[in-house]
Design brief:
Layout: H1 5-16, H2 26-32, E1 53-55, E2 59-62, E3 66-71, E4 76-84, E5 89-99, E6 107-111, E7 114-116, E8 119-121, E9 135-137, E10 147-149, E11 154-161, E12 167-176, E13 183-184, E14 190-197, E15 202-207, E16 211-220, E17 228-230, E18 244-250, E19 259-264, E20 272-276, E21 280-286, E22 292-301, H3 307-312
Parallel strand pairs: 1-3, 2-4, 13-15
Antiparallel strand pairs: 3-12, 4-11, 5-10, 5-12, 6-9, 6-11, 7-8, 14-22, 15-21, 16-20, 16-22, 17-19, 18-19, 18-21
Length: about 325
């Protein structure tokens, strides 16, 4: 049976979450309804008036608007809900009907991004806020309804509840983002355009699959010529230019810890392509703020028989792919 892209992402999150003591809850999830039920088509909105509601699991992945209620049946020391939206959306989170004991060590924290195995997406180099401002702690909030809004299409809620029958409701709303930046792709194939209008900011498009990436258009301010540099050959690359695109590969989610495969710091009107055989493949746009930078690209999943060829090219043998 084929596995849906969202299920593959969920399984990837599970593999990275072992240090958070979350993997022990997987058997309970599978026994209850199966992993595929997390992405049931029943979650689709049937009308503008329909509000989706369901229970929230200790380890969960959410990809739709709605109300999600968690009630502890036993002490739950380490739980997490990963929320993902479409690339052109950001996520609004709100806590409602909270019944936990903060003085006894219970907590609910919302995070602007994802935290996986000690790594954060987006990385501190790419996110516009300092790390401490990306956390929203219910137990430290003086407002009756704790809210948080993500800067990109992923967000996270992690919580600990020790008393049975304690819990809360999480309200998720997805909002349009006119200039998407720092995106986690839900699919192993597609097309996308990142635009950075006169802002000194770095934007990453992360694909949690080994893929072939084709850059179809690149506009970098006043650049006048084309040059693709392989970072293994020219380590300094384009970093000194202030405006460039780099392709990264790695097996985590923090782009600052990934391997630079290639960079491009000159406008491109033709086609540049690269195969990256890592668990995570990234297109990263670095902008000085002096120009309107734009990069368009398409990507598709690599077939298993393509992976040895990539290693022979010595471009990504830093990734271990079975």
């Amino acid at each position: 049976m084929s596995v849906s892209p969202r299920t593959q992402i969920f399984l990837f999150l599970i593999s990275l979450s072992s240090r958070m003591a979350l993997s022990r809850y997987i058997e309970d999830i599978e026994a209850a309804e199966g992993v595929n039920s997390l992405f049931s088509l029943d979650q689709k909105r049937e009308s503008e008036d329909f509000v989706f509601r369901r229970s929230l699991r200790c380890l969960d992945m959410l990809a739709t608007d709605g109300y999600f209620t968690f009630v502890a049946s036993q002490p739950q020391p380490a739980c997490a809900a990963f929320v993902i939206a479409e690339p052109s959306e950001v996520i609004s989170l709100e806590l409602f009907d909270v019944n936990i004991d903060c003085s006894a060590g219970d907590f609910i924290k919302m995070f602007d991004g994802w935290v996986l195995k000690g790594e954060k997406f987006p990385s501190s180099h790419d996110h516009p806020l300092p790390l401490h401002q990306r956390y929203t702690d219910h137990c430290s909030s003086t407002e009756p309804g704790t809210t948080s809004r993500s800067s990109q299409n992923v967000a996270m809620v992690f919580f600990r509840i020790q008393n049975p029958n304690s819990g809360f409701t999480l309200i998720i709303k997805k909002l349009h983002n006119p200039f998407p930046c720092n995106i986690m792709s839900q699919s192993p194939e597609g097309t996308f355009t990142m635009v950075m209008p006169h802002q000194r900011r770095n934007c990453s498009f992360s694909i949690i699959y080994p893929v072939e990436i084709q850059l179809t258009e690149l506009s970098l301010g006043q650049a006048k010529s084309n040059e693709l540099s392989i970072q293994r050959q020219i380590w300094s690359g384009c970093s000194g230019s202030g405006d460039y695109v780099e392709l990264l590969g790695g097996n985590g989610v923090d782009t600052s810890k990934m391997f630079p495969v290639a960079d491009l710091c000159f406008s491109l009107s033709g086609l540049a392509q690269m195969k990256i055989g890592c668990d995570n493949s990234v297109v990263r746009l670095v902008s000085s703020g002096n120009y309107i930078n734009r990069v368009s690209f398409q990507y598709c999943l690599l077939e298993r028989n393509e992976l040895p060829k990539i290693r022979e090219n010595s471009l990504d043998n830093f990734c271990t792919v079975e």
